[in-house]
Write the structure tokens for this entry.
Amino acid sequence: MFNMIDKVWIIPALMAASFLIILFFGKRWGTRATAGIGIASVSICLILSVVVAGNWINRVNNPPTGAALAADIVQANGLTPQTGKTIGEEVNAATKDSGETVATDSHGESGESHASEAEAHGGEHESVPPVVRTVTWFQIGGLQFEMGTLVDGLAAMMLITVCIISLLVHIYSTEYLHGDVRFTHYYAFLSLFTASMLFYVLSSNTLQMLMGWELVGVCSFGLIGHWWEEKKNTDAALKAFLTNRVGDIGLILGVIITFFAAGGSSFNVLHLNEYALSGNANTTLLLVGALCLFGGVTSKSGQFPLHTWLPDAMAGPTPVSALIHAATMVVAGVYLIARLYGVFFSGLAIGSSTFHYVAFIGGFTTIIGGLLAFVQTDLKKVLAYSTISQLGYMVMALGVGAWTAGVFHLFTHAFFKACLFLGAGSVSHACHHTFDMREMGGLRKKMPVTHATFLIATLALAGIFPLAGFWSKDEILAGAANGQENAYTIMLIFGLITAFLTAAYMGRAYWMTFWGKYRGHAHPHESPKVITVPLVILAACAVVLGFTNFPKSFFGFKLPGSVTTRFEHFVEPTFAFPPIQHAAFTPWLAIASTILAAGGLFIAYQYYEKNRGPHGLTSRSKIAHAGYTFLENKYYLDNLYTGVIAGGTTGPIARAANWFNQNIIDGVVNGIGNGARKVAGVVYVFADQIIIDGAVNGSGQGSEGAGQLLRKIQTGKVQQYASILFAGAVVLAGVLVFVV
Amino acid sequence: MKDFLNSWGISLMVFLPLVGALAMLVVPKAKEQFHKVVALAASLVVGFIGILLMTNFDYDASGSLQYVVDKAWIPIINSRYIVGIDGISLPMIALTLLIVPLCIIYSWNRFPEPKNPKAFLILILILETGMLGSFVAQDLILFFVFFEVVLLPMYFMIGVWGGEKRQYASLKFFLYTLFGSALMIVAFLALYFLSDKVSVDGQMMHSFDVRLLPELATGISTGAALWIFGGMFIGFGIKVPMFPFHTWLPDAHTQAPTVGSVILAAVLLKLGTYGFIRIAIPILPGAAEKWAPFIGLLAVIGIIYGALCCLAQTDMKRLIAFSSVSHMGFVMLGIATLTTFGFQAAIFGMVAHGLITGMLFFVAGSTKDRYHTLDISRLGGMLKSMPHMGWILGFSVMASLGLPGLAGFWGEFPAILAAYEPGLGLNVAFFRVLMVIAAIGTVLSAAYLLWMYQRVGFGVPSKEFEEDPHLHDVTFSEWLAWTPILILIVVLGFVPNIIFKVTDGAVSRTIAIVNGLGG
């Protein structure tokens, strides 16, 4: 197999080329060619990504040693031979800098220390540094800043996930967007998005990540506002972009703070992680930095309280929701934590402190997202809130130190959630483009393939054995229960409650959509193959992918070590990575969560299908009604953001600033101007005629030629003012020179 | 070749536009085609000389002045004709050389009322001489003369070819800037008299030489230095413009003809920030250190305040004008940090703002030509009526809000970063507060720009413009004028080293002067 890992930049570059070709020639070449270019590009990217993953697996199995290892570590740190002196400067800067000290170990030592670290926590694998390839990006103050690619298991996993889902979405969209007014525009943005996302996951430094992060945000903006004729859609697009910008304040500041914390010479992620884990890191600074970075995660990955843009983002075409707002872009925040785990781990002192900010926000988000999913009648919005809830799960996992569990859930969730979104799209495609579940029902007979795949994905999301969601969710719960030294009990409770909620709201959506009687006015029929084949592929992934991280011991059932926890083995970093503990499979938790999930499904079945239970409770009980209203208004967060904060800023505050500008500041200026004119009148009569007459006339004649242009303007005044000003200037100069 | 460039290159570049203008003066104004061709040719030849200068520039020594010419000019006061280019002036010169021909191309078939291409183009050429001269001058009096040369053509341009309130706007522009200039020349004279003397042909004389003044001015008392810096601060600050001296700008921009706005935004404003970097700070670093927190504060107020004012605007052009106040705030914040990062950000920001805001003014002008209004509430659905124009506007909006990957980002981000650790003995905590506020400003800039775009670009055209035949898409001359800018915005966004590498040497040298003499 050829070595792709060195030239991995080709993958995003290919998608960027696809974007440019579609942008410039798409209209001319027609829709078939447009879609064809997009699909061909993503397919090649997928193949190359698989090669990269193969290269990586090979590297883990045959880790580099000796000189090769040393060279790799030098590369990984962003310390190329010529910047070897950067280390010296770095140390100088750091010691100058208010006594903060920086990791000063030389390359060899750091390599050794990591190898020993890896032995200490895993015991089984050796330290395999990621493959980093960089070129100079820019230079400031003599320091070279680099841009490059970083490939490790995490990046390879993301490459494959993004490419598979993007490819399926590309294919699916040929039918879903068939006849759309802006077909080329749509495909151009899909390509640009895929390029940006791949660029993001391959970034070797935080500044590059910031760039990819914003670029995917723009694509999201463009695609949410795809049908921009309607104000509702553009409002949603603006809301998404601006809410993310709010979080980006945190991201920008976080990038800056971590940059300076680690010596102010490099944005390299491995360098930052190494610094954070070096033992003499400034943990206060890291804490602030990590919290700022988490601000970015909060908006991008839909965490409370900045999650409100995500449900509105459903205004975009459904395949986009699947790709961007479920599987890939929204996990960028989770990926950021995973990538900079050293910084988060040390900064938040995961496992050894009582300050569980990230874990708590994640856990809290799972619940509030899950609850909101119950009051939605729009199928896509149910899924959107479910995504928020599941993203909370991932963040919580990373927050409690269960790195692999969180990333594994990111991986499995991408597939079954994309399957659900595309399934919802298929349903809507058949039902006159509605997503209102009150106009659905009984679709299981009319759309058997869509139904079957939707059911599988629902069960996977609910965490039913043996589907993918079961394994990843269970790992998270196990991590919360006994991952680090002090168990995160609250997070475990959050997790268990959510397990129940997830099953219940998904059951509700499933039964409302596919069972009972059809309540709409269309003539639903199964979608064509272009739509159902991607669904089947994704459903198949939802079945099998859970086994990629099969536990070492499952209810006493033991498989050979070469097939268990493969995901952990290949994806979890072993270089510049904190010493995390790995929770073993916990039987009682697995049983408890399965019972909860089954219970949720059962209750939903009884309530929505069999029509049993306390129906009409909201009209009988005041408390229930109040609760329902509270949920229906989304905790009133939108009222606060849109009404109070945004409305206040764009309304009264902006108007007040403008009034101040026009009347106070400019009033002073005009006042001075008018005052000067009056003074000038006086001066003109008494002084000008006698004293500086000559000067004025002289300059007047000089500009006679130019004055022709100015017939209509009162030139005389300008010359007067000018003369007076210069006379004043000369006097002032004298004062300054001789008095001060 | 090299010898020729060394002795004549800069002078030729600076004064060739005037030669073109003189040639045009003697030809009657009815020969419009002649005037257009001559003006374009002059600006292109100037651009070609500029390219020769840039290709022969020694980039490894970008910290030192090159192509220096030093000749006696006004011997009685020892003011000399000193010109030269280093890494700081080079990007600004390149920007000027690019923008002027593009403006001429853009104007080709659309001279604003009262037409008269001859006079209009002559003014543009005079402007070019003034702008280029300001960026190469290394003598305070010479700089001042060029700085003032810029003033009159712009005054006429607004006053004659401007909008309805052109008289008020042009007069305000002229007097306000002149007021600043007056204080500036006061400061220059004070500096001249208070600094040490140098030997000129065996005779001890004061000097206006920008290269020597950092050393000569070390003897000036702290109090006097603070006053002198204050004079320059107001002179340059008005030009930038800094809050609260910015009120001439929205009026001037709103009333100016399109290319007037473009040149004003792209180059003229930079004369102010350039003055800080080239003259005020290196010569009086001690005073700069004292003034820096105040400048930083005003810069950040400008960022937020300008953005808030943008949110209240109903006129597209006025909104873009106010956005300049906000964006130049980032440039000034970078300068106020007195660090290499900050200065680099400032210079990049100057170029990026020149390209991006220039582009926005171009689009605004073309919008006005077609809709005959810039009232945001009446526009809408530009993407539908004129898809290409709508896309270009959307692209420029994204660039203007500082999107990473486009040029605007490299002016904003490093400036915010620099504020984390300001230079010299500046108060770190204070600047970190400024950093956070500046970062919040990035949200507001996204808000007003997207809000404008939502109402101009998105949606469907109102009844009024639904069938309007004037709404034709981007024309050939517009493509010709805009494409280079659009490409540069992307290229600079991805390869920022094009500028950073050039400026790095010179900025490092300047910061070394600042640290060495002021620390």
